[in-house]
Amino acid sequence: MIRLTRRNGGEMYLNADLVATVEPAAAGGPDVRCSMITLVDGQRVLVKETVDEVVRRITRYRATLLTLTEEMSTQALAAAATPNPRDPVEPDSRSSGGLFVLRGEGGD
């Protein structure tokens, strides 16, 4: 969601994934610096932000999602690779050299 300002000054949050187009409001009118946002369902929203500002906010929103996804993925991999100290650890009788196998619920 991105925060935008309606023409009347009211604040709104817009689902950036639903934006189909962003274009300048009618040139020559009082809303020259405003933008018209058309959503994928055809609904239109007039906001005070310029086209460049709306695009910048959408781009930053999507970059933030990608960054968070990468961080969560990295954390999940690190958590999966870290043994749970509450799981019993037993030596693996099938190998030598100190390899240990974690034995938990539903395991071997």
Count the beta strands.
7
Straight-line distance between termini = 46 Å
The side-by-side strand order for the widest beta sheet comes to: 3-4-5
Strand % is: 25-35%
Could you explain the architecture of this structure?
By secondary structure, this protein is α+β, with helices and mostly antiparallel strands. The chain has one domain. 29% of the residues lie in helices and 27% in strands. The protein has one helix and seven strands. The strands form three sheets. The chain has a three-stranded antiparallel sheet with strand order 3-4-5, with helices on one face. Strands 1-2 form a two-stranded antiparallel sheet. It has a two-stranded antiparallel sheet with strand order 6-7. Strand 1 and strand 2 form a beta hairpin. The longest helix has 31 residues. The protein is rod-shaped. The protein starts with a strand and ends in a 6-residue tail after the last strand. The mean pLDDT is 81.
Topology:
Blueprint lengths: L1 E4 L5 E4 L4 E6 L10 E5 L4 E4 L3 H31 L7 E3 L8 E3 L6
Antiparallel strand pairs: 1-2, 3-4, 4-5, 6-7
